[in-house]
Model the fold of this input.
Amino acid sequence: MCGIIGYVGQQKAVDVVIEGLRRLEYRGYDSAGVAVVAGNEVQVRRRAGKLANLEKLLAEQPLPLSTFGMGHTRWATHGAPTDRNAHPHMDEAAQVAVVHNGIIENFASLRAQLEDGGVMLASDTDTEVVSHLLAQAFDGDLAEAMRAVCRRLEGAFTLVAIHAAQPDVVVGARRNSPLVVGRGEGENFLGSDVSAFISHTRHAVELGQDQVVEIRPHQIVVTTFDGKPADVKEYEVDWDASAAEKGGYDYFMLKEIHEQPKAVADTLLGRIDDDGHLQLDEMRLSDEDLREIDKVVIIGCGTAYHSGLIAKYSIEHWTRIPVEVEVASEFRYRDPILGRHTLVIAISQSGETMDTLMAIRHAREQESRVLAICNVNGSTIPRESDAVVYTYAGPEIAVASTKAFLTQIVAVNLVALYLAQVRGTKWGDEIIRHIDELAAMPEAVDRVLDTVEPMRALARELVDAKAVLFLGRHVGYPVALEGALKLKELAYMHAEGFAAGELKHGPIALIEQDLPVVVIVPPRSRKVLHDKIVSNIQEIRARGARTIVIAEEGDDTVAPYADTLVPVPAVPTLLQPIVATVPLQVFACELASAKGYDVDQPRNLAKSVTVE
Ligand code: M6R
Done:
């Protein structure tokens, strides 16, 4: 939610900044802006809309040559997505420029104080107060001014600033919002995430909470908000710039859908030790802690929540520990019953989702153990957790989550099996058998991708459909929810997922002639479930629905009731979401594209939601 980049070095800053913003645009695309400091002057260009609008403006009104600069791509919170609300924001004397990600919760009172002091604010944003406060606090040292201002701010923020009177430094600060430093040779970077500078350096410095960083071409200085030297962690990014390119695909989403076999395989790599035991080496909870767990609570948002719903089936089945699953945004406000023996599993691709972060903080305050399942190394949620299991999906750029979802399903199965191993609810050979089943998933997903063309054709055929329903049972139910979410966010269509058995309790009234209904059919080995859903398909078909049936290969029993049959490889029930979700991803992607919508950057959305 909002992308930020800062640069100091020898290159033309505006070029580095625009390139970084292009990679960060997935974080928000309501406006974009850039500022440079040159000749003791700060100059800003900013424009509402996508980055292309800013580039057009820069072509008409070029910035002066400078090797110090910063940029911002916005997901609007305070103030409409207009030119005047676009970042960077400046003080009245145009000495300081500021970009911001997050929400400054006490901005109204700060704004009132500034206005009482005669300051005229030029935008509706919470950010602008920071530029005026920095200008007032500046006494020759921008980092010192930043520390003083940050101590007055409440809420979540990443800030980056430059000042005309101190043109050799770019200063950043963070509280509850992401900011990473890129260490180059004679140049340094700030970024909301490493993709901002990945084409220049893979050496990254992870900042902690409430820290201020000053970057100069040959120096990085990090302090706390109180000015004390701060501990930081350096690491190497394990992917390169090509991973953040489209690689010949029309959309990042399509590329990421096709990367799923590899992402699943990578997430499984190295999980069995020399003694044949499942190992999760980022697991910092002792076996004793894990044996004491008497309840698991899983939290996540959107797609991550759906993988949590799937996790419930695996964890309860293999460990017999009761599992609750909850959307993170509701969690802490209902006073959940938590304690030392509760394991809270937080699932998040980005590791920065504010609802999830606040939920884990609440859980830790209640002394619960927190295990994060996350895709972004060094992000806030794993850093604030007791243990982390990383998914190795690589960078996910498209706003719609695809490969992260499949790898989250793999990760929750690994966690379930690990708990079973530690608690002795499964024998070692059973665990290895299940790991082998997981190891067969990359090939199964590959096969789905090879046979998915009819799903594309169907999407083009249904481009004018008013709504689509999705039905599933057991782990097929979260798949139905995920299929509907993809369609809503990409094709802006009314789409709902239901537990198939629940349909007769109300939603069946929605069925009308030719309404497309996608049904995820459980494997034939689950006879009771399977028979029930075949009945459900007949019920909706009798009422005129157009049935699109996803069933395992060779399932002839459903064929007579399917207007379109989408076969997927036969796999164990608990792993069926890994194959059954893929056609739904392709369907939503193709339908959005057929409607002419922006597949990678759907309206109103941002990849990483860092506000509550
Ligand atoms: O980064 P996270 O996994 O925490 O993000 C959670 C949701 O915002 C995310 O899954 C969202 O629902 C996706 N855009 C769905 O495709």
Q: What stands out?
A: The chain has a mean pLDDT of 94. Residues 403-423 form the longest helix (21 residues). The chain has three domains: 2-244, 252-439, 449-594. Residues 301-304, 348-350, 353, 356, 399-401, 485, 489, 608-609 surround 5-amino-5-deoxy-1-O-phosphono-D-mannitol (CB under 6 Å).
